[in-house]
Amino acid sequence: MKVLDTPRPPSGLRRLFFRLPIHLYRAHLGWLLGGRFMLLTHTGRVSGSARRVVIEAIDHDPRDGSYVGPSGYGRRSDWYRNILANPGVTVQVGRRVRAMTATPVPPAESAELMARYAVRYPRLAPRLTRFMGFQVDGSQDDYRAVGERISFVRFTPARLSSTDGRRT
To answer: What one GO molecular function would you report for this record (predicted)?
Structure first.
């Protein structure tokens, strides 16, 4: 694995293009993106205001309802830093909206997630890794090495406590 320059978050027209999926969700058309993308609503660590971003749902466990998504700009992403400060989030996949708790995924598990992603999406995986600043040779070991460096986050459904109604 060769590390290229890590991309900077988009600005100008490119930023507008990247934020178009948010407008699909606001227009109640998020279902058009299927189960592959999710609208993440989180709280700004400085402003305390609601913030939104659409990220890829690279893994879903139907048994517990959890999703995993990557931070394309790594630990520098505002949304990633926001969920570290306040892990209580809302996730919308298609038409379903759920309160969730965000938890960073450990590097060893991230490595396996990235290796499975590369098998599932052999044409998309090299492009995704290049976008995130990595050049891979296509081997599972290379994808695992990338996975150890990417910031993945698991979103687990928040449970309501039966005694006081707060999320746990």
So the answer is: oxidoreductase activity
